[in-house]
Amino acid sequence: MERRFVLTDEPPPGTFQRLWDGLRYFNQQAVGDAEAHLLTVLLQDAADVTIGGLWGRTLWGALYIDMLFVPEKLRRIGTGSELVQRAEEEAIRRGCHCSWLDTYEFQAKPFYERLGYEVFGILDGPAPVYPRYFLRKRLREARDQIFIDADRGGPGET
């Protein structure tokens, strides 16, 4: 088979999907189900307009949080914590045992640490963007806390 390497920042339409389909097929041959399942928790205003939320996916027993955004006026009052908690609860229902994410130095590392996430990897680079932190959390403990809170009528109640 002849090979050509093309470096571009404008690949033809459908290229990403073609590559993704090939990788997914390979993964399915190796381990079975390789289909990630979208998990979103949307934050909406009174007019049902999405103003923030959490975007993630579950696969192979793990929740990956791609993105969390809370508008400035709704920060520091528990909104972000509740978005993450709701996603973790759904991930547990889906059979997940852990959650993981990444965040940069200027973003939300202390926030995630307060929620029980711990750093398991660091990618160094130039400030002020780096380092980039990779954090994880075991959801078994999260599940136990949810059930304890629910028994007390606390914030874990669903």
Structure description:
By secondary structure, this protein is α+β, with helices and mostly antiparallel strands. It has one domain: Aminopeptidase. The chain is 33% helix and 29% strand. Strands 1-2-3-4-6-5 form a 6-stranded mixed sheet. Strand 1 and strand 2 form a beta hairpin. Helix 2 packs across helix 4.
Short structural description:
This protein is α+β, with helices and mostly antiparallel strands and 158 residues long.
What is the CATH topology classification name? Aminopeptidase
- If you compute it from the alpha carbons, what radius of gyration comes out, rounded to the nearest whole angstrom? 19 Å
Q: What best-fitting shape do the alpha-carbon axes yield?
A: globular
Percent in strands: 25-35%
How would you spell out the order of helices and strands? HEEEHEHEEH
Low-confidence stretches are 154-158
Q: Which keywords apply here?
A:
disordered C terminus, 4 helices, alpha+beta, Aminopeptidase, single chain, six-stranded mixed beta sheet, 158 residues, globular
Describe the SSE topology.
Blueprint: H1 15-31, E1 37-44, E2 50-59, E3 62-69, H2 79-93, E4 98-104, H3 109-114, E5 118-123, E6 132-138, H4 139-152
Parallel strand pairs: 3-4
Antiparallel strand pairs: 1-2, 2-3, 4-6, 5-6
Helix pairs in contact: 2-4
